[in-house]
Each structure stands twice: as structure tokens, then as C-alpha cells.
């Protein structure tokens, strides 16, 4: 089994914000599979989907972004999943709007959700898919990531979400190294 974690903040107040791009990607992916989130496991909502014969668990932690590590660790332990078999999807303000970056491992890059997961797993060696959500040097970072995309940015970010869905499908059927070669 493979596990895809989409990072975001729970609740309607944060829906469609830059920080919730991880939620948006897995929602879009599951929509194409005609599957939704129906189960709750501890501090997460989960859904399973079979892709090319591989069972994949999609997870949206239901704690605030900075606390994503606890729910992620519980899910990984419950399913006894290897860290190479997980994919964490998150926003990144250091990548241009709509661009994606796939890595096999690496630092948190200042992202508190990724930092929380790394701290709970006691490693930075797990795959991640970062999506550029833009950057406003004139705004406070917290305020910026909790803002919604502008009309002009929306089409760019929708294209990035579609591309991220293709990454998920390819990652499930191959591996992270092949995804890096094809999509980075």
C-alpha cells in the first residue's frame, strides 16, 4: 500500500487557501476516481482508491498544519508503511506560482507542516511534492499562505493541481525517482 498525505488546515475558513493546496490536490485526484472522504482515523480523514492494481490511501490530517506530524505518524504506523511508500503534498512559497518540485528527501525548507512530519518520523528521508503558491514579499508569510488565490492566479494553480494529479498516478505506478525525472 502507498499513502498520499495532502497537507492543509481543517475547516471551511481555510478552504481554498494557498496553505491548503495539498488538500486541493488529493480532492481533485479522488474526484477523478469518483471517491470521496468517508472515514475518519484518529486525527485524519482517509479514503482508499485502487490505481493500476495498487491500493492507495489518501490522507488529510485534521490538525492544524504545524501539527501534521502526529496524524501522519499514526497512519504510517497503523499501515506499517515504508517511508519510501509515502508522498507528502504541500505548498511552497519559495517556488514560483504553479511550478512543482518533487524530491525523494530533504529539509523542511521552513515549512512547518513538513517540519512537524520530519520531527515525528525523526527523518527527512521521505518523498514530497511541493507546489509553488507564489510569494508576496510585502505581506507577512502567515497572512499570505492563509490567503486565497486571485482570479489571475487561479488558472495557473488549477494547471498545477492537474499536473500534481498526474504525478500521483505516475508515482503509484513507478517510483519517486521516475517522477523526478519526468516532472521536475
UniProtKB/TrEMBL annotation:
The active site is at residue 19. Signal peptide: none annotated. It comes from the Bacteria. The keyword Cytoplasm applies. It is found in: Cytoplasm. The record marks 9 as: Discriminates between blocked and unblocked aminoacyl-tRNA. The keyword 4Fe-4S does not apply. TRNA binds at residues 14, 64, 66, 112. GO terms for biological process: protein quality control for misfolded or incompletely synthesized proteins; rescue of stalled ribosome. InterPro entries: Pept_tRNA_hydro, Pept_tRNA_hydro_CS, Pept_tRNA_hydro_sf. Belongs to the PTH family. This is Peptidyl-tRNA hydrolase. The lineage of its organism: Bacteria, Pseudomonadati, Planctomycetota, Candidatus Brocadiia, Candidatus Brocadiales.
Amino acid at each position: 500500500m502507498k499513502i498520499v498525505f495532502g497537507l492543509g488546515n481543517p475547516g471551511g475558513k481555510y478552504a481554498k487557501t494557498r496553505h491548503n493546496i495539498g488538500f486541493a490536490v488529493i480532492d481533485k485526484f479522488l474526484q477523478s476516481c469518483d471517491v470521496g472522504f468517508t472515514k475518519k482515523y484518529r486525527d485524519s480523514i482517509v479514503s482508499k482508491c485502487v490505481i493500476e492494481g495498487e491500493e492507495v490511501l489518501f490522507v488529510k490530517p485534521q490538525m492544524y498544519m504545524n501539527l501534521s506530524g502526529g496524524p501522519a505518524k499514526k497512519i504510517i504506523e497503523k499501515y506499517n508503511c515504508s517511508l519510501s511508500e509515502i508522498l507528502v503534498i504541500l505548498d511552497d512559497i519559495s517556488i514560483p506560482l504553479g511550478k512543482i518540485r518533487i524530491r525523494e528527501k530533504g529539509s523542511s525548507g521552513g515549512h512547518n507542516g513538513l517540519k512537524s512530519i520530519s520531527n515525528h518520523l525523526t527523518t527527512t528521508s521521505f518523498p514530497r511534492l511541493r507546489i509553488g503558491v507564489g510569494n508576496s514579499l510585502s505581506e507577512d508569510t502567515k497572512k499570505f499562505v492563509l490567503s486565497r488565490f486571485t482570479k489571475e492566479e487561479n488558472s495557473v494553480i488549477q494547471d498545477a493541481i492537474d499536473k500534481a494529479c498526474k504525478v500521483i498516478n505516475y508515482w503509484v505506478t513507478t517510483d519517486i525517482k521516475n517522477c523526478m525525472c519526468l516532472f521536475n
